[in-house]
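ugh finaly. both done.
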Amino acid sequence: IGKLRNSGIEVSLGYSKTSAAGISYALNGNFSYATNKILDLGGIEMAPTGTTKHVVGYPMNAYYLYQSEGLITKDEFLDPDYTLLNGQKYGDQKIVDRNKDGVLNADDKMMIDKSSTPKWYYGLNFDVSYHNFGIGGMVQGAAGGWLYLGASTGYGFSSGYGITDWTIKNAYDPINGEGNYNTRLPRVSVSNSINSSYPSNTYLFNSSYLRLKNLRVYYSLPASFTKKLSMQSARIYVSGQNLYTWSKLPRDLGIDPEISSPTAGYPLLKIYSFGLDVTF
């Protein structure tokens, strides 16, 4: 029997007012913070599941990865005293031998106090109107989550993974940028499996986002007009859903941060609509 501690806070606030100039506005916001920590696993050391592991003192599904300290330089590659893995070249990950035993294996992996579950969630509903015209909508987001995107970035063609233009532009380029070892990703190679065989913190990406979930612009027909048609009210509107997302995830990878999945699924649809709301 294990123990898990969950803690957090949730706050909701609302405010509405009509000014002397006839501008009415209503705001409703919410914010929550939630975290968890494993306190006890009953004395059992659980085996890792892919890139995550349950360990006392860390959150559920915390990442369990190799530590990378950037990329191997050409000078290091040519240095006869520098230890290289089989097939490793300059531009590949510089995996750290954490226990200093001269061998790179699972004993060199480290726990990272991060998981795919966000810690913060927030949202805001708003509506502003002036006489018969108005605009309203909702923004929402989350922060504190991290996604492991090894497969999504293609691992440099290795193991049959696909690849995106973003990966090419952000990977080490031995031809056009030989001296630039500050790229986001290691080199791209058809046959290289070093980067996929040693999953590391190189492929952890911050999945925080803010999304304009929906927006509506409307015009309420005058009461003098609706009464003639035996209607209590009528409103013409134009609206859109999933209009824009601000995210730290590479947009070209096609990953929806709201789902917290490390692979691209069906594209998020933008929906535009035009209509008439009538109340009799």
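ok and the 2nd:
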Amino acid sequence: MAREPNSFDELFVPLDITAQAISADIGLPPLRFFPPPTSTTPEGLLCIGGGLSPEWLLDAYRHGIFPWPMWEDEPIAWWSPDPRAIIELDRLHVSRRLKRTIRSGRFRVTCDQDFAGVIHGCARSGDRRGNTWLTPAMIAAYCHLHSLGYAHSVEVWLDAPPSIGGNQYLSPPLALGEGRSEGVLVDSAQSALTPNPSPKGRGEMGAEGRGKLGANERGELGANGRGELVGGTYGVAIGGLFAAESMFHRVRDASKVALAYLVAHLRARGYQLLDVQQWTPHTGRLGAVEIPRIEYLRRLAVALKANVRFGDRLEGAV
């Protein structure tokens, strides 16, 4: 049988790990493939090797572990950092300008209409082309998870014609409150992965670009053939966990709009934990906080038991 890309039969554990078993009272399911997620290097590296099949990926996310390639043609590196960054689902720093953008109806926002377009946008947008952790093998693996119902995307479209029905908002419902000062905590949140120490920087939630789409940044026609895909975000959903992976934009604020809709949806559907993996100054400005890894694992165990489904259309007021 042909070996999948980045697949190795053995796991290699770093020499400088601090071995530490998980207490049974945390309540996580038994590990199938990995060492305990508490046995990492100081940087959070758990092990190297294994594969990117759904079985490996789901076992990883169920134990606070995620893949983060350091080289395209080498074994996958798996991480479990301490502390861990999350965003509470009822807290996000939203600027007054972004509130106006959300209310303006400039963008059409959908879910799961073009997962492949979103993940390729995260890999290629801006200066990420050829310099991203989203290798072809990683893209294929997350697209496979999407086909199985475990990975989901939120898409932001520009200049789309009116449409009736489907999993979209044509005009955003309003629930942000009036007259609040810039940077207050609002009922929505941000999600996406943050940079790493590897040569392939993990898609950071960078500042939004200004201006019109350039010649090399034209938004692609989406899978539904309507409008330009100009931003989005995606992640992995298991039980009440949503592990945000990356986001992208081709016009200003498009990714932030996607995140606002995503979190409104997560709250409406009953999700309990939004994981953004690592804190950076940018995610901190948007509301990310760090918690000890052991606290994250306890909250993860509770979230995994929640009977939650992502659904096929966006819900909740932004």
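summary for the 2nd one i guess: The chain has seven helices and 15 strands.
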